[in-house]
Amino acid sequence: MVATTTLPVNDAAHVYDEYAPQYDRLLEENRINAYMRRAMSQALLSTFEPGNRLIELGCGTGDEALALASHRCELFAFDPSPRMIEIARQKADEHRMGRNVRFFVGRAADLSRELAKASPGIQFDGAYASFSLSYERDLQPVSQALAPWIRPNGRLVIATMNRLCGTELAAAILSGHPRLAGRRLSERTLHKVGQYATPVFPRTTREVVKSVSHHFVFEDVRALPAILPPHYANRALARWPMVLDMLSELDPHLGMLPLLRWLGDHNLVRFRRRG
Length: 275
Hints:
- It is a single chain.
- This protein is of the alpha/beta class.
- The chain has one domain: Rossmann fold.
- It is 40% helix and 23% strand.
- The strands form two sheets. The protein has a seven-stranded mixed β-sheet, sandwiched between helices.
- Strand 4 (124-130), helix 6 and strand 5 form a beta-alpha-beta unit.
- Helix 1 packs across helix 4.
């Protein structure tokens, strides 16, 4: 996530409303982003079982929800951007398992109200948030909103921007530009989305675990990615596609190693709901 001070700053819902028509193309063109999405989807498919009823926070244009629907899961998917939800619903209309997904415009804070209206008393087998909770200033209210709806031992999977990114730290030292890595050390930095910038909140895995620990028990963590650079390096590395291919092959294995797993650009963390 590249910080910028030259673009107008707005909240995530507004900037993704503006960017929604281009969003899917970005994921296709940026090979590092595409790798992260594939890895996250694989983690979700290996965590959740066919027939699970799940909540997604920050569903974007719905691709992961629809992938899990093909896995015979039932999804209640939320996103604060109305235009992203509009695209997601169009995809669901054309998807053979689209009837398994219900899309809602809303943030984590809106979860209880929307679910109480849609399916009062329902229980879920798990929840996940793919890269979306980095836009939340405080994760404790997110945990509190989710907890009543998740059954005991239900799973929670979160991928968030890491405060300590190993590849970015290395690049900052080698290039002589320490500010490149230092921006993550503050509570808040900025992420460029189209013609806007929006605030994001980097966190170490320990900070994520502490924020949700009242309701969820930590299981494991992996770096995502571990040795691939952050997504903004995609254009610089485009001249060496074989290097990107090699790093993409190695990354899933190295991302679980004892030290590297804490130093990803993002960290993928899995939890269980307390009994």
